[in-house]
Fold:
Amino acid sequence: MDVSGILEEHKNRFKSVQVDRLIPVEHDLGLLASFDINMLDENKLRASQKKRDAYLKELSREGAQLLVNELFSQPTAVDEDSVYAMLPKVTSTLPREKPLPKVKPMTRWEKFAKLKGIDQRKKSRMVFDENTDEWRPRFGYKGVNNDGLNQWLIEVPGNADQYADQYEVRREEKKERIEKNKRRQSRNLEERAATDRGLNPRDMRKNELKRALVMSKNSTASLGKFDEKLNGEPKVKGLKRKFDPLVSAKGEEKAKNMAILNRVAKGDTSATVLNVRKAQRAINNSKRNKK
Structure:
């Protein structure tokens, strides 16, 4: 029985694994990428949409086939589940999507540790409690730092009030420690923000205090005129009204009035000729007085 025709028909159903390119295709198997710099056929790209899609589909298949051929040429590792190809190191240098992160400025503790040569070691989250023979969190819920609040008996220190509630004292001390840590964290964030803007954190905090002092002075009825002055209090610079002299040069007053009339006649609104709000307020006051 001759089955050559059946085999030939079965062979024609699949594409060939051999792909020819005028310019060899470069591969970076570490990224599973291929770089094909061969020219595209402009006539096929300008053909009908059906032919163009078929052409692009064939190019994609050939590119994937070249990449698969390269993968099968790599050394393999056999596992219980399958066979894996050992990919080489990445050879292509790709640009970053986003800029490099800025170096975070050191906190006060980090500067002190670097100056004193203190080696910072990260403590584990869980610690072994020998009293209960179990692992417990270092902080937080059921943490070992709360043992002082869970003891059934607390010794009263010699210098403490013997009638004070020691449980309440320890709770208040813990709240104070938490608030102190929050203030330090807020201070570090402010210093980091000032450093990012290229400012001295101390000068920035000083300027903020001056600004707050000026705002508090303006909140009084006298706008701080009769408030007690503090040592080193900055002098508030306000706007000074400028008045024309009573005796002006010859023709100066006439020139000013003529300039105003000319602007009004031309309809020039670029310069402030008339305070409309003030004029309207004066008219309303006069009408109210007549009533």
Summary: The chain has a mean pLDDT of 81. The chain is about 45% helix and 5% strand. The beta strands are 26-28, 33-35, 76-78, 83-85, 126-129, 134-137.
